[in-house]
Amino acid sequence: MLYEYSSALDAGRARSNNEDAVIVDAHSGLAILADGMGGYNAGEVASSMVTTFVAAELGRWLREVKDQASVADLRRAMEICVDNANRAIFNAANANPNYAGMGTTLVVMVLRAGQIMVGHVGDSRAYRFRAGRLQQLTKDHSLLQEQLDAGLITPEQAQYATHKNLVTRAVGVEDTVLLEVHTHEVLPGDIYLLCSDGLSDMLADPEIAQILAVAAPLNETGQSLVDAANAAGGRDNISVILARSEGEPPAGSRSWWPFRR
């Protein structure tokens, strides 16, 4: 199964600097997106560090093992790479007063024949658009999501909450971090979207789905998402990565189906 990739970054309308970072390594089937914490110092340093670190370590490992790694091997590799990146950011923050308290969200996706594996920390998201339906694949690590899960507020109330950006888990803030990882089956024609909250806070799911439903080159779709987020206010940095599956899984390819969640 082949994948087409595209990415876009924009500072938005309210901020002069961009604390988001994205890296796509098509050769390794690896997509990484991070959003430096807005309330922390040097968020752009943290997001750049985690994307660069994970792309180098995990990308190298993926190229070495090719399609021979088991699901457990891949999960462990993702966890180790993110843990190493977390420690590097945490140590840099403690060694340099200018970086004190910096942190970042992270969403990383590995795309293989017939399956993807998604890991995330914080409130940057992964979505799947299939047969006209948009599904959020990640659940935010945020105070707002915890309140929703506990039934303290309704989804309608959440739309107008003033604390949307308070995350409960981030890379680099503490000396350890827990990466949440899930696998998903891929079908031909699926579109996968990674994004920062600069997109998801500005556009409701039906608005995102409407843009993804338009038959257009993937780079134009990404730019349309950015433009729509800016038109809705652009209150934060906006970053997106798109991946679209094409064709059928090759005969005899390793299947991750038993591990689907």
Give the gist of this structure.
This protein has 261 residues and is α+β, with helices and mostly antiparallel strands. It is built from seven helices and ten strands. The strands form two sheets. A five-stranded antiparallel sheet has the order 1-10-9-6-7. A five-stranded antiparallel sheet has the order 2-3-4-5-8, with helices on one face.
Could you characterize the architecture of this molecule?
The structure is a single chain. With 261 residues, the protein is of the alpha+beta class. It has one domain (2-139, 170-247): Phosphatase 2c, domain 1 (4-Layer Sandwich), CATH 3.60.40.10. Helix content is 33%, strand content 25%. The protein is built from seven helices and ten strands. It has a five-stranded antiparallel beta sheet with strand order 1-10-9-6-7. β6 (125-130) and β7 form a beta hairpin. α1 runs antiparallel to α2 (71-95).
Could you give the topology of this structure?
Elements: E1 2-10, E2 20-25, E3 30-35, H1 43-65, H2 71-95, E4 106-112, E5 115-121, E6 125-130, E7 133-136, H3 143-149, H4 155-158, E8 180-185, E9 191-195, H5 197-200, H6 205-212, H7 218-231, E10 238-246
Antiparallel strand pairs: 1-10, 2-3, 3-4, 4-5, 5-8, 6-7, 6-9, 9-10
Poorly predicted segments = 249-261
Strand order of the largest sheet: 1-10-9-6-7
- Report how far the terminal alpha carbons are from each other: 20 Å
Fraction of residues in helix: 25-40%
Q: Assembly type of the shown chains?
A: single chain
CATH superfamily: PPM-type phosphatase domain
**CATH class category:** Alpha Beta
Arithmetic mean pLDDT: 90
